[in-house]
Amino acid sequence: MLTLEGHEGIVSALAFAPDGEMLVSGGKDGSVRLWAAPLPLAELGRHNGQVLCLAFSGDGRLLATGGRDKTAKLWDFARRALVHEIPPQREPITALAFLPNDQTLTVACGDPEFKTQLARSLFFWDVPNRKMRDSDVYETDGVRALASQVPQRLLAYALDRRELVVRDLVSPTPVCAFRLKDICRNLAFSPDGRWLAAAIDWKIHLFDVARKQERLTLHGHKGIVYSVAFSPDGRALMSGSGDRTVKCWDPTTGQERQSYAWPIGRIHTVAFAPDGLRAAAGGDQGAIAVWDVEG
Question: Residue 194 and residue 176: Cα distance in Å, rounded?
Fold first, then answer.
């Protein structure tokens, strides 16, 4: 296990570049950092406040970042250059996801305290033309979590009113919606788009999108689950929690496979490398753990 240090305070967002060569992190200190483990590579740039989310385009050319400063930024990843900043919104940018062909970025906004109703909390940004795209999706409740599944053209998002919605991007009619008992903090689709994992309170809820029903609830964490991620082959599900552990689950049975207690504090974000052989977790002490995944 490698420990990468450089942030001040919580590491709140992680993403491996699609080619697997680099890891990108965002933190409470507002910095967006690049890593080529075991060494820090560079600071890409900054937000004026905590970085809450990161998303790569499918081809890896663009990186989108969003934060508490209510802005979303688009970076040319190869040139390490800021190419565009989406106009500030009324509330923080809580989640980002690129859609098929990388021409559209989904932007989610929400009040971290879940108290504000917005004029528009979810919108599509036309990347080449740098403007908001007309959309049949209109939500005014804050959005805390967002996930896209590009091959199946699916988009899922969790609303402050404790509802989870899955949409087919071809049709304005939702595929399914689920009522939740608590706030959902993070979402992840399986690679084939069949399963949707949701981090809700101390548990992970696994939904069968095709059958439009909840399939499993994974118990084992002793603190709030902040982040979930599927392995690239879909055979493992990883979760990070305020109980300072990262757990790896079998999503077909709900059984816990491994549990890691890396010395980086409460775990706020987790990510798999594109080859599935490495994983990373960001804690609240400014450090990132990177390790080889057990078979």
Answer: 12
Pick the CATH number of 2-292 from 2.40.440.10, 2.130.10.10, 2.60.40.420, 3.20.20.140: 2.130.10.10
Tokens for 57?
């385009």
Please tell me whether the overall predicted TM-score, pTM, comes out greater than 0.85 for this model.
yes
- The tens digit of pLDDT for each residue in 232-274 reads 999 999 999 999 999 999 999 999 999 999 999 999 999 999 9
What pLDDT digit, counting tens, does each position of 84-128 carry?
A: 999 999 899 999 999 988 999 999 998 755 555 566 789 999 999
